[in-house]
Design a protein that fits this description.
Layout: H1 3-16, E1 24-28, H2 35-49, E2 57-61, H3 68-76, E3 83-86, H4 90-97, E4 109-117, E5 120-124, H5 133-143, E6 148-151, H6 157-169, E7 174-177, H7 181-189, E8 195-196, H8 200-208, E9 212-217, E10 243-249, H9 255-270, H10 272-280, H11 291-312, H12 314-318
Parallel strand pairs: 1-2, 1-3, 6-7, 6-8
Antiparallel strand pairs: 3-10, 4-10, 5-8, 5-9
Length: 320
């Protein structure tokens, strides 16, 4: 067979592979400036830089109702091959708490788990009286409900972790919601709030500038980015909590579209740029879970968060 004949045989198959025919909506179920927003926009930039898609990915923030707006939007886009979403743990908690939302996340199309994000307890660097977990707990108990913890909304991950800390240390705080993690970070350094459990990426700019300081990390082991910050478990406190950063599509996407997006995000995951971001900003990015394995992960996490919410109480998370 001649080379021309080979080209004639193989070219139609290549052109038959699915690709986006219009811009892809890249939904972010959180506000601007937070971890999910930073990650989605980093990935969107890499897609453009590496020319991985014939059509652009358009980041769209839908933070309303602790991600309920985004979840309902994705549910209603069933069968649409031009919508994907960057998620966080409110992917699980919001449908559990808002039972009338009518969303079952196990019906969504799993594409790829990009990272497991982490949490640290942060205070303003001006707080000379607080330099470790013990002095933090002492200050919170002394202030009582005057102590203001900033977060991204009831049902969001930081409100869950705040409730876990209230239960563990037997204190109560006033939880102040903001539109996104970036806004939370700014309010901490501006002293409008007293503490937060921001993700590392949300505080990095201020931490490097010396405006905020981490007291404890809620991970199994110390992260390379924070080698001098102890874990809660090191200090005898049984709190370990992570946030999944996965990309998912609406229900009933075509298999060819799922394959395209899975391959695209795998290439991003393996890139030097993404792995470098994970290392510098304290994310765990060992392997990209996908397909049925990611679907099972979501099902397991959904059950785990149902148990967690039952343990700490939905009211302690929502403030109702």
């Amino acid at each position: 067979m001649t080379s021309a004949a080979v080209l004639a045989v193989t070219a139609p198959a290549a052109f038959a592979e699915w690709q986006p025919r219009k811009p892809v909506e890249f939904i972010i179920m959180a506000g601007t400036g937070g971890g999910a927003d930073q990650i989605a926009r980093l990935l969107q930039g890499l897609i453009e830089k590496k020319d991985l898609s014939p059509r652009p990915f358009i980041p769209i923030n839908k933070p309303g109702g602790s991600g309920a707006e985004a979840l309902r939007y994705l549910q209603d886009k069933a069968g649409d091959n031009h919508v994907v979403m960057m998620t966080l743990n409110s992917f699980y908690t919001t449908p559990i708490i808002q039972e009338d939302l009518g969303v079952d996340v196990t019906e969504f199309t799993p594409i790829g788990l990009m990272a497991m994000d982490t949490f640290l307890l942060w205070v303003n660097s001006d707080r000379d009286d607080i330099n470790d977990l013990d002095s933090y707990v002492e200050a919170v108990k002394s202030a009582g409900l005057d102590w203001k913890v900033g977060g991204t909304g009831s049902g969001q991950e930081d409100s869950v972790l705040t409730a876990m800390m209230e239960a563990a240390f037997e204190y109560d705080v006033t939880y102040i919601p903001f539109p996104g993690g970036g806004t939370v970070a700014k309010n901490l350094v501006g002293n409008q709030i007293d503490s937060t459990v921001n993700n590392p990426a949300e505080q990095m700019e201020f931490w490097r500038a010396g405006n905020s300081k981490p007291l404890v990390q809620f991970t199994a082991e110390r992260m390379p980015a924070f080698p001098d910050v102890p874990t809660a478990k090191e200090l005898g406190v049984d709190i370990e909590y992570y946030m999944q950063r996965s990309v998912n599509g609406p229900p009933n996407m075509d298999p060819e579209a799922v394959e395209f997006y899975t391959n695209l995000f795998q290439e991003l995951f393996d890139s030097e740029e993404w792995q470098g971001f994970c290392e510098s900003d304290g994310l765990t990015c060992d392997t990209m879970m996908k397909g049925e394995e990611l679907a099972q992960f979501h099902a397991t996490q959904k059950v785990a968060h149902e148990k967690l919410i039952a343990q700490v109480g939905a009211a302690s998370i929502t403030g109702e």
